[in-house]
Amino acid sequence: MKTQLIKHTQKNKKMKKIKAKIKKQEEELVKTECIDKDCPIHGNLKTRGRVFEGNVIRKSHKRITIEFERMIYVRKYERYAKSKTKIHARLPICMDKEVSIGDLIKVQECRPLSKIIHFVFIGKINNSGAKEK
Question: How many domains does the chain have?
Answer without folding.
Answer: 2
